Structures are given as structure tokens and as C-alpha cells.
Amino acid sequence: MAKSNPSKSAKKPDMPSINIGIPESQRAAIAQGLSRLLAETYTLYLTTHNFHWNVTGPMFNTLHTMFMGQYTEMWNAVDPIAERIRALGFHAPGSYAEFSKLSTLADAPANPPKALAMVELLAKGHEAIARTAREVFDVVDSANDQPSADILTQRMDIHEKTAWMLRALLED
After folding, report:
1. Smallest Cα–Cα separation from 64: which of 51, 74, 73?
2. Which distant-in-sequence residues (6+ apart) come within 8 Å of 146 by Cβ?
3. What whole-number distance in Å separates Cα of residue 93 and Cα of residue 144?
4. For residues 30 and 139, is the Cβ–Cβ distance under 8 A?
5. How far apart, in Å, are the Cα atoms of 76 and each of 69, 82, 126, 133?
6. Which residue of 5, 84, 88, 155 has the lowest C-beta tally within 10 Å?
7. Per-residue model confidence as pLDDT tens digits over 141-165
8. How far apart are CA 148 and CA 146, in angstroms?
9. Model-level pTM?
């Protein structure tokens, strides 16, 4: 059995060994991908919550309510993602600094945009998270990691549907 390279591992040195049928190198790759997913989900959660607070205009009530449902769903999603990273034997990222390094999504604009620009930004964010989940799925599938695959499948479904619903608001 080959020794793992501690410099490439986020595993805590004093953590007991883990034998769940997935080698450490694959667990590390999965944890890294799930960390990206967690960072992007949290970033979009925060942007959506920001837009919920700051939306104005004739669609205020509809968007205010829709955004609340969306940020609530994402808030409930971050814990299972982080807990899966922990179950794989790695630390889950949990700071704004870590999230900003891991996420491909930009932070919420300092000045809230108009309502439809908010909708467009959120649609693109949901599409980006669906792409990230799909990329990570290949790693998870090759490791035969069904619990992570289940999380990713759920996230793809939710983010793709949410992006579709947001895009529908942009049609004439």
C-alpha cells in the first residue's frame, strides 16, 4: 500500500485512519470537488439573500418571495455537503476567504442591480453550480461513491430547475 502525500491532503494528521472502501486519493479529490460545490452554494446563497433584501420594483413581492425560497433551499443544502466532506475525512471550508478562493462565482454586487438583472445573475449562478456538480460527478462516479453521487444528483436537479424558472422570467 502506497503512503499518502501529506502535502496534498487536507486531512488532519491526528485523524484515525478511514476505510470506507474509497482510497484516500479518491476521497481527497471528491472532498476537493465538494468543497468547490459548498463554496459556490454558499456564495450564491449569500447573493440570493442580498437580493431578497434589496429587490425593488413592480415584481417586488414575487421576487422577494421567490428569492426567500431559493436562499432557504441553499441554506439547507450547505450542511449535507459539508458533512459529506467530513465523512470523507477532510475539513470542510467555512470562511469567506476560503469560499472566495474556491468559488467561480463573483460576490454580490456592492450596489444591488435592478430586479431583472438580479434574476439574470442568479440564473447564471445556478447554471454555474450545476456545471460544478456535473464536473465533480465524474470523480465521484469513478470512486463508486453513492452518497456523494446522491448529493450531486440532487444539487444538479435543483439548480437546473431553478435556473430554468429564473430564465423564464427574462422571456418576453
Report:
1. 51
2. none
3. 24
4. yes
5. 11, 11, 16, 17
6. 5
7. 999 999 999 999 999 999 999 999 9
8. 5
9. 0.89
